[in-house]
Write a structure and sequence with these properties.
- By secondary structure, the chain is α/β, with parallel strands linked by helices.
- It folds into 2 domains: about 170 residues, P-loop containing nucleotide triphosphate hydrolases (Rossmann fold, 3-Layer(aba) Sandwich); about 170 residues, Glutathione S-transferase Yfyf (Class Pi), Chain A, domain 2 (Up-down Bundle).
- A 6-stranded antiparallel sheet has the order 2-1-4-5-6-7.
- A hairpin with a 2-residue loop joins strand 6 and strand 7.
- Helix 5 packs across helix 6 and helix 5 crosses helix 9.
Length: about 350
């Protein structure tokens, strides 16, 4: 899978950008704030219909303009597809090969990406929300249909919490308990389906990254859980007094966590800084390897200034993997200084300044 063309109009600070990336390494160099990450965000948006950065639709549109557009041409298995998204303050619209799609499922899966951003470096020792975000992104990149389950759970949870904040009646809460229970079962099923595939690949990849010095695992941890809708309804009913006092839903997939372990002990507590870097690198390589095994091709990799955050050893390992025949996919890398990178062969270089991109 390759992007053969990408363009953006009035997206973030990109007034008008259009370029033809190469099939392997595409280096986008520029100072902080120049717009490097905006290009990766545009690609990610076409893949996921979601952004990986906070903000509203209005934030995606360049200042003093009414709307933005991102567009990409994707080639995969001798087939070419054109993805286009328009964005205004009121919402987003998506086209595939010139035809507007009404259901997200028709656009999802056309472009498969893996994102490696600086915030991912805190994955194994940071907040549970970051680990849930990692798991959900990885899951819907493997199975785009799971994104609907995630959105439905988030929307229903928001409604139930709003009801708790306004002291809604028990009769209304009964209705939302049933809806949230159904959404919780669906979302949890997708997550566990992904982890069942991911765990052995992750353990294998940690061995590869550390020359078998470390034995690692990743476990799904939950304060309370159920396998059925009735089981979740029972949990919500029993925790209703507590939920009313807290004015929020205490249990569910939104408070789940992932526990990365080293030799059976929590990495968050016991891992050294170097071990954390090794684990994070392994999480991303394992995500790529899972997609390769499941889909039969390499995803497009988006690396957002990660080279400046990794140490020399992990940078060398990442470069070696990406240049190997095992990966062989297309990569977009942002950096403030190309001297930090080791991708001289098979690379296309672009410089961005104040939202304007030039190739060289």
């Amino acid at each position: 899978m390759k992007l053969t063309e990408f363009s953006a109009v009035d997206f973030r600070n990109l007034q008008q950008v259009r370029f033809q990336p190469g099939p392997r390494f595409n280096i986008i160099e520029g100072h902080n704030g120049a717009g490097k990450t905006n290009i990766l965000e545009g690609i990610f948006l076409l893949s996921s219909l979601k952004t990986f950065r906070p903000g509203t639709n209005r934030d995606l549109v360049r200042f003093n303009t009414e709307g933005a557009e991102v567009r990409a041409v994707i080639e995969h298995q001798d087939t070419s597809r054109v993805l286009r998204m328009s964005i205004t303050a009121k919402g987003r619209k998506v086209w595939v090969d010139g035809k507007q799609v009404r259901a997200a499922a028709a656009a999802l899966g056309q472009l498969t990406v893996v994102l490696f951003a600086p915030e991912d470096l805190a994955l194994t020792k940071g907040s549970p929300s970051g680990r849930r975000r990692f798991l959900d992104r990885a899951t819907y990149h493997r199975w785009p249909a799971s994104l609907d389950s995630l959105k439905r759970y988030e929307a229903t949870l928001k409604q139930r919490n709003a009801l708790l904040k306004t002291d809604g009646s028990n009769a209304l809460l009964d209705i939302f308990d049933e809806q949230l229970a159904d959404a919780a079962v669906n979302l949890s099923t997708w997550r566990m389906r992904y982890l069942d595939l991911y765990r052995p690949i992750f353990a294998e990849t940690v061995g590869m990254v550390t020359d078998n010095e470390l034995v690692a695992d990743v476990l799904h941890t939950r304060s309370k859980t159920a396998d059925t809708v009735d089981g979740w309804i029972d949990i919500y009913r029993k925790s209703r007094v507590q939920d009313r006092a807290r004015r929020t839903t205490s249990y569910g997939p939104h408070v789940d966590d992932l526990n990365f372990t080293l030799d059976g002990r929590s990495a968050k507590i016991y891992a050294s800084q170097g071990q954390h870097r090794a684990l994070v690198l392994a999480t991303k390589i394992a995500e790529i390897r899972l997609l390769q095994r499941e889909l039969g091709y390499s995803p497009v990799l988006l690396l957002d200034d990660v080279s400046s955050e990794l140490d020399a050893r992990r940078n060398a390992q990442l470069s070696s993997y990406l240049k190997s025949d095992e990966f062989g996919g297309q990569v977009f890398l942002t950096t403030t200084d190309r001297a930090w990178l080791d991708f001289d062969s098979d690379s296309n270089c672009f410089t961005i300044q104040s939202g304007e991109l030039n190739g060289h």
